[in-house]
Write a structure and sequence with these properties.
Blueprint (H helix, E strand, L loop, with lengths): L2 E7 L8 H12 L9 H27 L6 H15 L5 E5 L6 H10 L4 E6 L6 H18 L4 E4 L7 H15 L6 E7 L3 H6 L26 H16 L6 E6 L12 H10 L4 E5 L8 H17 L4 E4 L7 H23 L1
Parallel strand pairs: 1-2, 1-3, 3-4, 5-6, 5-7, 7-8
The structure holds the ligand C=CC1=C(C)c2cc3[nH]c(cc4nc(cc5[nH]c(cc1n2)c(C)c5CCC(=O)O)C(CCC(=O)O)=C4C)c(C)c3C=C and fe (ii) ion (2 copies).
The site of ligand L6N33NVT has 24 residues, from α2, α5 and α10.
Organism: Patiriisocius marinistellae
Pfam family, one: Ferrochelatase
Enzyme class: lyase
């Protein structure tokens, strides 16, 4: 077996042209694990409503954060992939779930290098149906249709790994060092509450009141995005020795009218500003790479909301991006994967 690794992120439009944004959003939102309603309803909602208005709006937002080299999410993911490759002795490729850098191209690139076993590594610390699961399903479809000889090994969500928490917490701690702040908000991308129920393998044990997410040992946690976000916050806070009441968790980027995970980030920023918080710091640990949702929604819109209600200082903490320690961490996991398999082979 010749091994290789495929890093996978979400993807971005090819450019900030509304036509490209429409193409990208069409693919993204027609995914049944993102907008999880029957095909006829999804088609009506996405093609009949959302794609008529949102691409123009989103294109303007993308234009505010776009870099000369392209989409920050893509550029930062590419930089990460290069660093991981430099630190690894097997091929490491990068693909996106949506857009032009397809999973098929990523798998083909590895196959062309002689790879026969691919470890997929979704660049999402927490599991969600709309992220990790849709990558897994798409990879399975592609393998069945185009790469029947390829063996696939998956990487589980890494939100609770000590080595990941160390790297994440230290990156946040670096930014907090010497910073005078009243509150640190951990803002995660939201999902509709319905997604949490659908992923509940214990069939209804998740009561959506947050308490189940803190219950010890529940088998449901493996697929509960909310649990995984809450625990990421708890572990980072513990590592950094943050005092209770100086930090909290919220969820951003909701779309549509269904209830999404709460509390909502925009309302939390507003409420805190109104309650007298003057200096706020925000970390966004659901995102490995800075992107539209961190650079525009948080760093621009979030800051505006905070200032409107009397807040003074708003500090956004960068994602892990291509931080050396993060690239090294992924390289270590790749190494571990190989060592484990050598041991198995010897035994
Ligand atoms: C943490 C990972 C993410 C989850 C979970 C997630 C769920 C989810 N997202 C939408 C709708 C949109 N998301 C958009 C952008 C976007 N989403 C993520 C990550 C997660 N999404 C990232 C990294 C980005 C940024 C992409 C970039 O190019 O920078 C967008 C597009 C932008 C916009 O028009 O606002 C939409 C739409 C849903 C419906 C959903 C869960 C069901
Ligand atoms: Fe999203
Ligand atoms: Fe839960």
């Amino acid at each position: 077996m010749s091994k290789g690794v495929l890093l996978v992120n979400l993807g971005s439009p090819d450019s900030t042209d509304p036509k490209d944004v429409k193409k990208y959003l069409g693919e993204f939102l027609m995914d049944e694990r993102v907008i999880d309603v029957p095909l006829w309803a999804r088609t009506l909602l996405v093609k009949g409503i959302i794609l008529n208005t949102r691409p123009k709006q989103s294109a303007k937002a993308y234009a505010k954060i776009w870099w000369d080299e392209g989409s920050p999410l893509i550029v930062l993911s590419e930089r990460l992939q290069k660093k991981v490759q430099e630190k690894s002795n097997i091929p490491v490729a990068l693909a996106m779930r949506y857009g032009s850098m397809t999973l098929k191209k990523g798998l083909q690139e590895l196959v062309d290098k002689g790879v026969t076993e691919v470890k997929t590594l979704p660049l999402y610390p927490q599991f969600a149906m709309a992220t990790t699961e849709t990558i897994d399903v798409k990879v399975d479809e592609l393998v069945a249709a185009h790469f029947p000889q390829l063996k696939i090994t998956r990487t589980p969500a890494f939100y609770h790994r000590k080595d990941y928490i160390k790297v994440l917490a230290e990156s946040i701690g670096e930014k907090l060092k010497g910073l005078d702040y009243d509150h640190l908000l951990f803002s995660y991308h939201g999902v509709p509450e319905r997604h949490i129920r659908k992923s509940d393998i214990t069939n209804g044990n998740c009561k959506m009141n947050g308490k189940c997410c803190f219950k010890k040992g529940s088998e449901q946690h493996e697929f509960c995005y909310r649990h995984q976000c809450e625990i990421t916050t708890v572990n980072v806070a513990k590592y950094l020795g943050l005092k209770n009441g100086t930090y909290s968790t919220s969820f951003q980027s909701r779309l549509g009218f269904d209830p999404w995970l709460q509390p909502y980030t925009d309302r939390t920023i507003e409420r805190m500003g109104k309650a007298g918080v003057k200096k706020m710091a925000i970390a966004t640990p659901a995102f490995v790479s800075d992107c539209l949702e961190t650079l525009e929604e948080i760093a621009m819109e979030g800051e505006e909301i905070f200032h409107e209600v009397g807040g003074k200082e708003f500090t956004t903490i960068p994602c892990l991006n291509d931080r050396d320690e993060f690239a090294q961490l992924i390289a270590n996991w790749i190494e571990e994967w190989q060592v484990v398999n050598i041991d198995t082979a010897i035994a």
